[in-house]
Amino acid sequence: MSVTTTRVPAVTALEGGTRRSSTLRPSRWYRPRTVIGKVILWIVLLGFMCLFLYPFVWLLAASFKPRGEVFDNALIPKTWVPQNYVEVWNQLPLINWAVNSILIALIAATLVAVSSSVVAFGFAYFKFPGRTLLFGLVLATMMLPGAVTMVPQYLIWKGLGLVGTWVPLFGMNLFGSAFYIFLQRQFFLGLPRELFEAARLDGASYWRMFWRIAMPLAVPSFVIVFLFEFQAAWNNLQASLIYLNGGTPDQFTVPLGIAYAMTKFSPTNGGHGDYQYVMVASLLVTLPMLALFAFGQRYFIEGVATQGRKG
Amino acid sequence: MSATTADTTSAPTADPDAEPRRYRHRKYDRREAIAGYLFISPWIVGFLVFTLGAMIYSLVISFTHYNLATGVANPAGFDNYTQLLNDPKVATSLSNTLFYAVMAVPAEIVFALFLAMLLNRVGRGAGIFRTIYYLPKMTPAVATASVFLLLLNGNTGAINKALALIGIEGPQWLIDPNWVKPSIVIMTLWGVSGTMVIFLAALKNVPQDLYEVSSIDGAGPVRQFFNITLPMISPAVFFNVIVLTIAALQVFDQAYLLFWRDQTNYSPDSSLFYGVYLFQQAFQQFNFGFAAAMAWLLFVIIMIISLIQVKVSNRLVYYESEN
């Protein structure tokens, strides 16, 4: 049982396939019994916490430093330069990047969450010849390295005249995505079939059953899929490089924009090594993701934990 | 939309609900099967076009010299494949990538499992640590790269300053060819929390009774780890190894951002990863035929490695049968 079990209703359904005997208690293997043991454990955990947090604090501090002090590693700037933020605002079209990325991420996440749910419901509820084989094929595509289809997919989008537009960045989300289909199917399998039989007797169509009965119940796992894809779209550097790199900077997405800023301010490329500006921009594009996590951390954790359960 | 059509195109036979028994002799309800196909049809279309179609298309292109401007593909026979052997950068990037994977995957597995076991031992309070440990995973690769570019600076970077405190002279991480790959491993380890969460979920599922029984038998923590914990979580280990290996063989973002973003800049050959070289060949040199051949080589390599991992896992992974 996951820690989040009590909080996310989706969990119980997601775990349907791996339910264990209820007499087993969750593992608390070798929880330290002595005070010293507990103190050591907490010190180690706090130590790792510092290691994981250090780059964030460093980034925050560096974003307020003047050029000459970025490398001094002080976690509290000696000289405070909040004007860095104004400079970045003036020099980089950050707001364009953010708007572009937010819109792309919203479209990508909505499309993939809906399409994957539709497909997942097909696999979960209906019986049809070849279902097992086809679902195996869905799972197999998860193993397919993206590099293999990268070139032909580009040529397909180019053939459709859509290179340079946003469409290639979310177009494939119309067709569902393997992991999300898997996740949603697990959820739908956990719903009692009687729920649907009753609706069928009332004359509900299959689509109505899906849209009016299954989907409202599947909101938690829908949110998991949505958040995962939103994050993936926000971070997707390679697709932006392939499909949007030809445009002007204000057409860039967040990852492409930061890569552009890294080069723009790099001393090897005529810049002055104004890394504090790169730090400001990096911090600003990280904050939305941290906010997303603050809002939906249990969904993220549950979504990741589910991956390992398909074993 | 698809399902409403399912209903209107319903089978010429009578409503199955009216007389369900009539269909007993058939394995499938025709109406239901059609609806099922309609529901999964988006995936089928996507698979046929963007996966299977794309793979076949890329196989075809790999036997041509593809001209992007004209869209004309001249037959090239095995040219692109012989070029794989003749281009020294293919071998370099491939060995860099394999070397990186061999370093990164075990490091990630061990570190993630270590952290997960620590978290599993804390009762209350594990949640807050898990949340904080997960934050790096939320950080966009561009931000990670730009911060670590400065943290890993050989002269003034925080990592070398910290090493100096304990009397170690740190290397020129991002310049010395020997330290390029360890640098990327460090960045990867910072974001190891996804793997950790999977392990943590697996550890929570190990029945406490096994430990209690074995400690009555006098087994110590080390023996318990190897005889209970590891076998019980072996499906999660296997899953993580496969996923991390595939990811490591395709490593792109960090290598591209730190070394190959700026084409005017010099970068050591040891930072040329297969994914980066493939990207350069396709989208900077526009050698689509050659890039497609490179992609197929990578595909075959990943399949072989995955197959070996599956074979090995069949002997090592313990799957608990239902009841």
Automatic annotation (TrEMBL), chain A:
It comes from the Bacteria. The keyword Lyase does not apply. It is a multi-pass membrane protein. It is found in: Cell membrane. The chain crosses the membrane at residues 39-61, 102-126, 133-157, 163-183, 209-228, 275-295. Residues 98-296 form the ABC transmembrane type-1 domain. InterPro entries: MetI-like (IPR000515), MetI-like_sf (IPR035906). Pfam families: BPD_transp_1. Keywords: Cell membrane, Membrane, Transmembrane, Transmembrane helix, Transport. Belongs to the binding-protein-dependent transport system permease family. This is Sugar ABC transporter permease.
Automatic annotation (TrEMBL), chain B:
CDD domains: TM_PBP2. It is found in: Cell membrane. The chain crosses the membrane at residues 34-60, 98-119, 131-152, 184-203, 224-252, 288-308. It comes from the Bacteria. Residues 1-15 have a biased composition (Low complexity). Residues 1-23 are annotated as: Disordered. Its main location: membrane. Pfam families: BPD_transp_1. It is a multi-pass membrane protein. Keywords: Cell membrane, Membrane, Transmembrane, Transmembrane helix, Transport. InterPro entries: ABC_transporter_permease, MetI-like, MetI-like_sf. Residues 94-309 form the ABC transmembrane type-1 domain. Belongs to the binding-protein-dependent transport system permease family. This is Sugar ABC transporter permease. It comes from Pseudolysinimonas kribbensis.
